[in-house]
Amino acid sequence: MFPYLFPYSLVLALFNFIFDKNIQYAIVFSNLFFDICGGMCLYFLLKKSNGCLKKGIFLWIFNPLSIVMCWLPLNIVLVNTALCLLLLEGIMLLNSLYLKSQRKYIFAGLTGITIFVANLFRPIFTVVLIALIICIIGYQLKENRKEIGAYIVGLILITTTLVPQVFLENYIECKYKDDILGSSGGWSFYVGSNYETSGKWSPEDRDYFFGPVISDTTSISEAQSYIKEQGIERYREMGVVKGINHFSNKLAVLFSDISNCSYDLKYTLNIKEDGGVWKIISSGISAFFVIGALTSVCFWYKNSQERKLSELFIGLCFLGFTAAFLIVEVMNRYSAIYFVIFIILMSLYKTERKMRKVKLK
User: Fold this and answer.
1) 352: which residues sit within 8 A by CB, 6+ positions away?
2) Cα angle at 308 between 302 and 310, to 5 degrees?
3) CA-based nearest residue to 316, from 140, 31, 90, 57
4) 96-100 long-range Cβ contacts below 8 angstroms, 24+ apart
5) Tell me: the pLDDT tens digits for 123-166?
6) What's the predicted TM-score (pTM) here?
């Protein structure tokens, strides 16, 4: 059903082995390790993109979601670390492409392999591949550039991402006689098409899928394909107006309330769910990041004299992840992946202001 859970189990099992089967230490130190790695990637990312290092690292360290929420769900820490690494590799690739460095081929291969590995933990990082391809095309179109190296970089990116994926899918299909990886996602797509729940999980959808659908099909891949068709039929029945309203409702679920994303704060700090403090926590953190990022981008766009491929890349990733989450099941805890991008965006304006002060001196 959810093949991306196996890589998490493998990582946790590795840490469990390192700490002599002490699962408590394995959980704590695996999260600490990947959180530190994510912070290091963010540091070098901001440095490469001329971002505000102090602000970015401060937000990463003191983000309450990272401090409290991620002690148990390793997947969120690991996914955010993978995103930091991919954004860093992507920016280094685009910078080397702009500078016409031969290292761009190495960065292309590393980025493609990282996208493949990251997709095993959560199959959403193809968004980064698409964003990079768009940036490379934009680089070629700017000033009518015609560099064969850019096409080679794009080819390396696509090859190192998709070829290992195809080999892995074929291996699993031959071994288990079922297309487990290739057919995954039907259930999530079906849940996301539920207009009544705004694309969120519901017990009715669960009972339907794990009841009649599973019992009437012969394999998981067949059940996933069938439920995906049911989801497509749901979208067809909505029509244009109802469909737009559905996606706007899903967007509100994704950004306006992160109560599910910060629920551990409630139990850790003994906060009552019906109180005003909980409402501030569940909505205030998300509002802080969204408003801060939008304000930073607006000021940066107004004062910046030059548009860079790296900044286009970050923006495309933000739009791509939003579109990907709106198509499938939407849950407010998914907004945790956006904090990486928000932290980067919130660093833009301060950098531009500092640069202007230096010029005045």
Assistant:
1) 299, 300, 303, 304
2) 120
3) 90
4) 97/136, 97/139, 97/149, 97/150, 97/153, 97/309, 98/139, 98/309, 100/147, 100/149
5) 889 999 999 999 988 888 875 667 788 889 999 999 999 999 88
6) 0.82
